[in-house]
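Hey, I'm writing a tutorial for new members on how sequence and structure tokens pair up, and I'd like a real worked example in the thread rather than a made-up one. If someone can provide the structure for the chain below, I'll link this post from the tutorial.
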Amino acid sequence: MRTDSSTALGGGHLMRCLALADRLRQTGAEVIFICRDLPGQLSRLAVDRGFGTSILPGEPGQSDWQSDAEQTLTTLSGRQPIDWLIVDHYGLDLRWERMLRSKVGRIMVIDDLADRPHDCELLLDQNLTDRPANRYDSLTPPHCRKLLGLKYAILRQEFHDLRPRASARDGRLRRILVSFGGGDITGETEKALAAIRLAGCDDIAVDVVIGGANRRRTEIETSARSMPHVRVHVQTTDMAGLMVSADLTLGGGGISTWERCLLGLPAIVVIQAENQRESIEAAVRQGVLWNMGWHQEVTADMMAGQIEYLCERPTIVRATAEKAWSLMAEAAQDNGRSVVAAIMERAYVAS
């Protein structure tokens, strides 16, 4: 699996690869991660889960697609034949894949942008979108099998395990979860804490999740200590548990959107990057979250107003939770089986 994480990129690509790797390992497959040494990278999570991990150098000038392909080839040299190369990376495309083609049996791409060509046998886009189902047809070979839509969402097993506990939200706000990704480079966490203070939520418990590499960690922890019932969780390993305990979250987009929906957790969302916009807007049309807009335009006062509005309207919160829960019904039932089956039925050892 070739994927990256960093303070700037976030951890979503790595987390969905880890979820898929866990399921593949259950079939007897050996999975190896290849990750670049970027600031705030989280490859140790793969190590902690027992996966072999190779780290590419992170020096400036070493991350263009051609250098990346050459370094990946070097990493793969001398290894036993590779059945599948799975790549989840917005910066890599058909050119990179063709350079790796001779060293692997098959290639799978995980994507959700549909903005560049690929040379692959299998493509997974697990996001919600209003774009047509044929959006990848001109970007992939005719023989490529495409798995598109939320049914194929690969989410960590702990979220599936806790789904039964999350089915009975009454809409009242007793606990709020604040989580804008490990790095939160746009500074939404502090904005959210200011909003909670402005909304006068002194009787509501608040869990704040940040990554260990968050550049504003000290300021966030200082702000949290000045507020009642606020707890900061740094690099938590229990995100699913925190989501189940919450009644509302303030957060961003990405894979967290579908983790929240799987657990029926309503969300007030801020768009932090262009690659989040499409799925957030599609989720709004499904009635499963409230979109505050682009991060540079969202203020603490705006967030506070939305929190106050929802505090007074538990019926709306409950209805949103039910829609989120229902949206992920197919994904909950499938639980990654279709993706794993597509990989295993087409697996063969490279010559």
